[in-house]
Prior knowledge:
The chain is 51% helix and 13% strand. By secondary structure, the chain is α/β, with parallel strands linked by helices. It has two domains: 6-222, 2-enoyl-CoA Hydratase, Chain A, domain 1 (Alpha-Beta Complex), CATH 3.90.226; 226-273, Lyase 2-enoyl-coa Hydratase, Chain  A, domain 2. It has a six-stranded mixed beta sheet with strand order 1-2-3-4-6-9, with helices on both faces.
Amino acid sequence: MAFLPLGQALAFAHASTESKMTILERRGTGPVAHLHMNAPERLNALSDEMLAALQSQFDELRETSSVRAIVLSGAGKAFCAGHDLKQMTAGRQNADGGKAYFKDLFDRCAHMMQSIRALPQPVIAQVHGIATAAGCQLVASCDLAIAAEGTRFGVNGVNIGLFCSTPMVALSRNIPRKQAFEMLSTGEFISAERAAELGLINRVVSSDALESDTQTMAETIASKLGAAVKIGKSAFYEQMNMNLADAYEFTGNVMVENMLYRDTEEGIAAFLDKRPPNWTQD
Length: 282
C-alpha cells in the first residue's frame, strides 16, 4: 500500500476546519455517521482536498467505536464524477510532465479506497445522478450501495484517452470479468438496474426513498453487536482470497473467537429466552 509523503500528508491532514467542513460534511451523532461530499459545483470530484478530507474522516472513524455504520453521499446532481481533471491538467505542468504528481495522486486515492475496507464499520454508498471513473470506483469500494432510479455508472476514462486502470481494481472485484471489461473498454454508462443485476449495488429505489432506505439499512446494521460486525467484515474480505479449505480453516477460527465474546453468549441466551439482548460493548 502506498502512502502520501510525510510533508504532503501533514499539509493535507492539517487543512483548515472550515475547508474540511465545506467540502465534506459529517452528520449524525448516534451510531450512524453520514459523510456528505459537498462540492456540487465540481460534481463532488475526488480533488486533492476531497481525498484528504475523506482520508481524515476514515482515519478518525476507524477509532470511533460508538459509530457502527457509515453512509457516504454527495450533494447536488451527482454522487461523484471521479478525479478532478482541472487539477490533473495543472499537475501536468510540472517539470517532469506531471509524473511525480500523478503517481502521488493515484497512491493517495488507492490508500483512501483501501481505508474503506479497513474500517471496522460497514460503509454504504448512497448514490444518485452519476458515479463515473473514480466515482464508480468509490461505489465499488464501499461494502454496500443503494442507488436512486436514473443513476448511471461508468468507468469512462477511455473516452478521453485514459483507461480507468485503478477504478478497474475495485470494479472487477464487484462484477463479472467480461462485463467489467466491456464497461472499461467502451466507456459506456450502465443503468442503476443493470448495476444491481451485475452486483455493483445492492438495490435500486425511488429518488424519494433513497435517503430513508439507506438510513434503514444503516440503522439495521448499527443495531447489531459492533464487535461481531467488525470481526465479520474483516473475515469476509480475508477469506475471499483463500482456497476453499483454507477459507474454512480461517473462518472456523474466527467463529471460535466470536463465540468466546461475552456479548455473543448473551445474544444466544436472549434469543433462547425470547428477549432483547443486553449487550455491554459497542
